[in-house]
Amino acid sequence: MISSVLPTYSRAPLSFVKGEGSWLTEADGRRFLDLGAGIAVNALGHAHPALVETLTRQAQSLWHVSNLYQIPQQQALADALVDKTFADTVFFTNSGTEAAELAIKMARKYWYDKGTPRTTILTFEGSFHGRSTGAIAAAGSEKMTKGFGPLMPGFQSLPWGDAAALDAALDDSVAAVMVEPVQGEGGIRPMPEADLKALRAACDKTGALLIFDEVQCGMGRTGRLFAHEWAGIAPDIMMVAKGIGGGFPLGAVLATENAASGMVAGTHGSTYGGNPLGCAVGLKVTEIVSDPAFLDEVNRKAGFLRQKLEGLIAAHPDSFESVRGLGLMLGIKCRKPNTDLVAAARAAGVLVVPAADNVLRLLPALNIPDEDLAEAVSRLDAAANALESA
Ligand SMILES: *Cc1c(COP(=O)(O)O)cnc(C)c1O
């Protein structure tokens, strides 16, 4: 008989009753170091006191009102994001997928309103933009699309890191290019700064809108508030989710006034998106994470972790090959199957996340203490030892 929860996940045999900082605890008291952080969601760890305080205070006054009314918490978060980024305007969603949907609609509407409808959106092999019918068509990988056709037309997937293919595809029929500055699910693959710059220039040449999916790599994850800042360029449209809510479901689409010009009253909406509860929490997360001193600490911790991981890899050439990524969005390319290493790590009391290309993903809370990082790496060392002697 089918389980009462639709069995679309193969779940680990773990069940947590409490989260505190970077630690998760099971009912029997067993503790795990959480280096997955809900897949880059718990940006400030579990039960951060300032977030608990903000959430409970807002919950006592007002949870939800419709977007038919003014929502000051939403306005405040939008103002903060506009202040700290390239964007002129923000729409709030509940998830990354919902942000992808709006990004796609916004790009198409932009060209429709110009009277020269362009519909094609270029994406990249290995990308992940969510699980809606639109988002799976955008990513295009068979793993996500098989059996769900016919797919929404208008997407063309390009090989990763192939400038010639991009050049050939990016003509005057292209509405937009959608890319993760650092691929997450695809195996922690940063797009080199030079490629990001070249992509910006190529889009400027044809007028194509540049959409960055920073759902996973944004909100301080790479040591800048948004990953594209490292390259000194900006998109026209950006998708944000995961870390921005610190665990509360919240996403956003940020855009320039020009890119958003087609999205007038009545063209889009969301029942829950931008509710007072989510936006109050999102504002607190944004305030904490965008503080330059906080981001300096993310970069320092990232250097510390990376150095420890280089040592781990050197000690276990049979298990691990190399480390890659940016900031606290790191991937270990494995020699042994990454799923075996995830299981061995779990048995050693540390939680990591698999990604494509046989990679282990490390996405710790951005405020994780150094001693927790050191402990996590020593547990990964124990996991590799156990697997190698099995
Ligand atoms: C997780 C993710 C999404 C989808 O976000 P959901 O909140 O799961 O809908 C989209 N893009 C990227 C890069 C992601 O990592």
Provide a descriptive summary of the structure in words.
By secondary structure, the chain is an alpha/beta fold. The longest helix has 24 residues, at 292-315. The protein has two domains: 16-40 and 294-389, Aspartate Aminotransferase, domain 1 (Alpha-Beta Complex), CATH 3.90.1150.10; 50-289, Aspartate Aminotransferase, domain 2 (3-Layer(aba) Sandwich), CATH 3.40.640.10. The protein has a seven-stranded mixed β-sheet, with helices on both faces. The mean pLDDT is 97. The chain has helices spanning 37-40, 49-61, 72-84, 96-114, 133-139, 142-145, 163-169, 193-206, 276-289, 292-315, 338-347, 370-388, and strands at 16-20, 23-26, 31-34, 89-93, 120-124, 155-158, 174-179, 182-183, 189-190, 209-213, 237-240, 251-255, 320-326, 329-334, 350-351, 353-355, 359-362. The radius of gyration is 21 Å and the shape is globular. It has twelve helices and 17 strands. Helix content is 38%, strand content 19%. Bound molecules: pyridoxal-5'-phosphate (PLP). Pyridoxal-5'-phosphate is lined by residues 95-97, 100, 128-130, 180, 184-185, 213, 215-216, 241-242. Pyridoxal-5'-phosphate (PLP) binds next to helix 4.
